[in-house]
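Tutorial, part two.
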Amino acid sequence: MGLFDSRGRSLPLAVAVLLAGGAVTASATWAMGGRTFGPGIVRGVGPGPGVGGMMGWRGGAATQCGAPAIRDQSVRFAARDSSGMMGGAMMRLMPMRAVIRAGRATIELVNPGSRPHELLVFPLASQAWAGQRAVGAEDRVDEAASLGEVVPVCTQDAAIDGTAPGNVARVALDLRPGRYEVLCNLPGHYRRGMWAVLTVR
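Running the prediction step on this input gives:
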């Protein structure tokens, strides 16, 4: 479901602010590259670097996985690849910040990008910053503290490491209140910016 302006044009980022019991929650629907991701329960998000600027986000494969409906609460992240006019590449998980309730939750990754991606969930200390984990010799972070990793929902080539373009992956976790960092740990992806913050309340 997207939102539209007075002329019926789809908005790139539609944010509906809901006031319930004095709490402010933002429900956002992302519409990028002709595809809509959401709704997810998010707070304080923006389109991220490169949208409408010098960096162009690629959408190599439309997500065609017929994933079954999720019964518990869930949060969805979309993997985004980019190509820059100045050379090099950037990657993002969108939204970059999300908020859910404590308890059982399904973390979902949709991959409309041009290359495989994965998603792992790590606790994030109260004073720690996301995106600052040490990257090892294989251009990955240490996975010892990971609480779980998404698993592809639809069949894909077994030789692919991570979630193939066009596929969807999920993991169900019991999460306590706190901050978590979700990230792609394929070689070089975290270093290029593929991480996001999940707050559980």
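The chain has no helices and 14 strands. In part three we will examine how such features are distributed along the chain.
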